[in-house]
Structures are given as C-alpha cells and as structure tokens.
Amino acid sequence: MKSALPSALSLLALLSAHQAAHAQQGDGTEVQITTNVFKPNKVLPTSERIGALKLPDGFSVAPFAQGLGNARIVAVSDEGFVYVSRREEGDVLLLKDEDGDGKADGPPVTVANRAQAHGLAIKDKTLYLATVKEVFSAEIKPDGTLGPLTMIIGNLPDSGQHPNRTLAFGPDGMLYISVGSTCNACNESNPENATLLRATPDGKSRTIFASGLRNTIGFDWNPETGALWGLDHGIDLLGDEVQPEELNRIERGKQYGWPHVYGAGDIYPQSTPIGGVTKQQWRDQSEPMVIGYTAHAAPMQMAFLKGGSFPDDYAGDAFATMRGSWNRNPASGYEVVRIHFEKGEPKSMEPFLTGFLTDGGKTHFARPVGLAFAKDGALLVSDDTNGVLYRIAYQGSAVKAQATGPVPAEAMTAQGKKGFDVPLALARPETEAKGTLTVSSTAFEANGDIPLRHSEYADGVSPPLRWDRQPSAVSYAIIMEDPDSKPAKPFVHWLAWNIPASVTSLPEGLQEQLRLRAPEGVLQGRNTAGTHGYYGPKPLAGDPAHAYHVQVLALDTMIDLPPTADRDQLLSALSGHVVAKGELVGLYAQTVQPPKP
Questions:
Q1: 482: helix, coil or strand?
Q2: Is residue 20's pLDDT more than 50?
Q3: Is a pLDDT exceeding 90 seen at residue 5?
Q4: What is the DSSP letter of 453?
C-alpha cells in the first residue's frame, strides 16, 4: 500500500528537522506541499529479471560479478584491474577478467579496508580512496593488489545526510573531491560542505572549487572540450515533480544555488540566507542548471565515453547511474541514463538501461551506483542492493566511435591559474593613491609574529585591526594576501569592502560569511580557499615564515559588487577610487606537524 504524507503539510513543519540553527523565519512565506515516501520492495536478481532488462538495439547486459554486497563506486586501471568500493563493509574489492570472457575471474580479492570506504580514483599506478573525512593513497602492485594505505587528507568536513565522498583527477592533474551537504536544505556551518574541492595530488593544499552543490557524486570532464560537468541531487520533500536533478557545468568560483535556489532559478521557500542577503540576490549570483532530469532519480557516478567500443552516435556522450527515488510515487531512477552532447554541449538526458524496477514499479532488484568503462570498452555498472556488477557491451554492426585522446587540459588549467603570479594589491595600478594609511593591530606588531589563534591551525579568527580615518573616505576595503604561498601566489586570505567611513577598527573574530551584520552591510568576497571572510595563515609545516600583508584601502565610493566577487573583480571595481592606502605585515610559520594531514 502506498505510504503518503498528508497533502496539506506546511513546509516549515515538514522540513524543520533538516534546518540548521542559522535558518531565519518571519518573511510571511506560506507553502503547502503534497509529498510521498515510497520505497519499492527489494527482490532478487533472477535470470528472468536480468533477461528482461532493456537497452538500445545492439547492446547486451549480463552480470560481470555477483555476490559483492554493498557495491558502490567503480574504478578501472589501465591494466584492466577493476576496483569496487563497499561502504557498508568498509573495504575495496579487486576483480580481474584476464581471459577476456566478460566475467570476473574467480572471487574478488579484498585489497583495502577503511571504515565507510567510498570514493575511488586512479592516477600514475596509484589508487586513491575516500572515506567520510579522509583520503588515502596506495601503490597499485603489478598483480593489482595494493601497497600500504597512506593518509594524505585527514580533515574533510564531517558528514550528515550525504557522507559519500567521491574522487576524480582532472586533466590539470589535480584531485577533485565531492563533499555533499549535511542536510536537505540548510545554511552549512562548514563552508566545505556542499562543494567540489580541488586538491594537489599529495593532499597538502586544497581549495573550494565550486559551491552550492547539494550532493554532486557524479562528475567528469568532456573529452572534446575539457569542461567539467556534474550531476547534482535535487532537494527532497518538495513534491513528486520537484526538484529536478541537475546537470551543471562546474567552473571555479561559481555558486550553484543550493540551499536557497534550485533548478533554472526557482526559490526554495523555507530557508533564508544569512547576513541579510536576499533570496533574489542569492539567485542572481548563482548558476542555473543546464539540463534537468526526473526529480528524485538520485544521480550517482558519471563517465564520458572515451573509447571506441560504442556506436559513433554515442561519441562525446556521457553516462550516469540513477540509484532511484524514495520520495516519489511512482518511483523514478533505478536506471542508467545517457547524456547526449553535441559539439561539447548537452542536448538531452534519456534512459539507456532500464528494467530494474519490476512489478509495475512496486519492486526493484538493483539500485545502480558505480559506473566505469572497462579496458575492453564495456560499461560496468554496480548495484549496491543485491551486489551485482553488470557489464554492458555493444555487439551490433554500427560504425564504432573513435577513441579520444587525452582530455584537453587548457580549460581547467586556465581556471586554476586565474589570479596567480600577479603583484600584491598595493603594488597594482588599480590601487594608485596619493594618501597613506597607518594600519595596526593589538594582536601583533608590524613585521611581528601572528599569534597561533589567528591561523587555520588553531582558532582561525580574524585579528583586531585599526587604521587612520580619512576625511574624504566614503568606505574602506581590506585585501589580505600571502606572496610566499605554494602553489598559489599570492594566496588571497581576506576580501572585505563597503566598510562604512565611520568605521576605522574591526574587532577580533568577525563572522565568516558573505555579508556582515556588524558592521552592517560589509561584504566579504571569495578568497583563494574559496570561502567568504577571513581565512587565516596555513603555510605548510616546516616552511620558512610567510609574510601576510593586510592591506587597507580608503575609497571615495561604495563598491557595487556581489560578495561572490574575487580579488581581481574587486580591484577592477575600486580602480580610480582609492584615496589612501596602507598595510600591516605579519609573519607566521608552522613549526609543528599537525597530527593529521
């Protein structure tokens, strides 16, 4: 019997359990929603049911391996080794098909054990494994087994509703890490939640690449253009048809709507941005989805076709698993979809492998999660319900697509280098000024050591600041930079503008958000870490002391920029308006290696 929530639920009552304390009420919103909780019963993957699966003409599907338990993410090495993570068992399995018969040779071998093992990526004969809060690396031995696991990241954000971290190496050689939200829709307290992170392969440096991504488990790079595309999970409990699952072009520094805006620009009625930012402003500074898919289908792993095993009509297309809904009746997902691209742009998203829903949608025998191309070009799809790894192969007569070369790196490399290898703000022509400012702090003297509490190794709170009052100033701006950072030079630690002319000092520990309530109306832009507000010193342990330049600018105007702006956009906006400037330089070195990388 169908289980449905009452049809006249107020959104506040429905979602209050999912909201963080930051959420604000009192704006007169009144919304009523009909929603469903419907979980089709699980049945066994019998030969008859597998034989009824549907694919386009010329394709076939059969089990590659069975009895794998909670099979999640799939990764395939250049040698053809197939790795499958199992979150509930907390391990990684190795499978091989050395005789080329399309089936795994013998039982799987456990090659790694870590609690809630999930994300997998392979680069340079090294396997990378993500848990909730850690990333490990291990050498792939000639027989496919792994050397010892080495933790390279140990402080990813804690999880909540979305603990499933995923990994992939971009064409720029950097490691990309998806970190989902802790909730259905809320203002996150950790800025790294609901983001895509970008890290160096050794894990020693990472930044937020893009934000406002509720749970982008599946992402990959277009082999023609090098652009990054990802599928984001839509907000739950908005009804059977809302919100669509999103296909987004993911670019550095962009914000993708969640939690206040979704889809093509629709506004989520319950949540409220913090700091006085309106939902309309949030929408204006967010990127809309490019293509939507059936609500609640739950997109998982995604991969572009790069080999020559499928028909030419599929060249440049991507595939993704849809694990299936619990919040829709009739159920959606439980399938593999094809994302059709033309000249590097997505045109449609359509079912490719269907039939996992049975008995008219009342039962299911698979929830597809992992997806990767095998060495022979077949498409492998994992099921985390009954533990089957399926193999999809093309056996028709159509002309095959040409294998692609390396994914172009220019698009990602250009984004990664933007804003680096430039002079500090006070040395730029945009900040030319006749007047000078004296900047000071009670926390440290000029060219003195910055206390530990102001670093990201400790409290990470902004230092108290004071500067001279300029009679002609309409506002002040702050740009804090580190010219000694690696690999980003300079690393922007803090951007703040529209500080009122009446304010010539700031207390310790300002809020780290887009817009401040005290001082009212101050905007804080995107620093190199990808956060908003002060980001304290965090040099590599053992580095010589870095110099941190806290630069204060007196302006003859207020700046009309959204808080998603970066340093270069701020400098462009204030060019010609600087009447005085000054700086305070502090030093910081981390001499003690942190207990976790």
A1: strand
A2: no
A3: no
A4: G
Name residue 483's amino acid. Answer: P
Looking at residue 54, what DSSP letter applies? B
* C-beta of residue 431 within 8 angstroms of C-beta of residue 187: no
Report residue 381 CA to chain centroid gap: 23
Q: What is the pLDDT of residues 357-391, one digit of tens each?
A: 999 999 999 999 999 999 999 999 999 999 999 99
Residue 117: closest CA among 153, 92, 149: 92
Confidence of residue 331 (pLDDT cuts 50, 70, 90): very high
For strands 475-482 and 491-500, give the pairing: antiparallel
Residues in Cβ contact with 518 at an 8 Å cutoff, skipping those fewer than 6 apart = none
Gap between the Cα atoms of 169 and 175, Å rounded? 5
Q: Are 189 and 210 a contacting pair, CB within 8 Å?
A: no
Say how many residues make up the chain. Answer: 597
**Sheet strand arrangement including 91-95:** 71-76, 82-86, 91-95, 109-113
Q: Are 131 and 166 in contact (CB under 8 A)?
A: no
Question: Model pTM?
Answer: 0.94
- Bridge partners of 247, per DSSP, are 231, 291
What is the rounded CA–CA span in Å between residue 428 and residue 426?
6
Q: Is the peptide bond before 519 cis (omega within 30 degrees of 0)?
A: yes
Residue 564: burial class (beta carbons within 10 Å; 0-12, 13-18, 19+):
buried
For residues 451 and 462, the answer to whether their CB atoms sit within 8 Å is no
Which residue type sits at 385?
T
pLDDT in tens, 211-229: 999 999 999 999 999 999 9
What's 184's DSSP letter? S
Q: What is the pLDDT of residues 537-560, one digit of tens each?
A: 999 999 999 999 999 999 999 999
Please name every residue paired with 169 in a beta bridge, in sequence order, or none if there are none.
175
pLDDT of 419: 80
Pairing of strands 59-65, 368-373: unpaired
- Contact, 529 vs 535, CB < 8 A? yes
Rounded to an integer, what is the distance from CA 504 to the centroid of its chain? 37
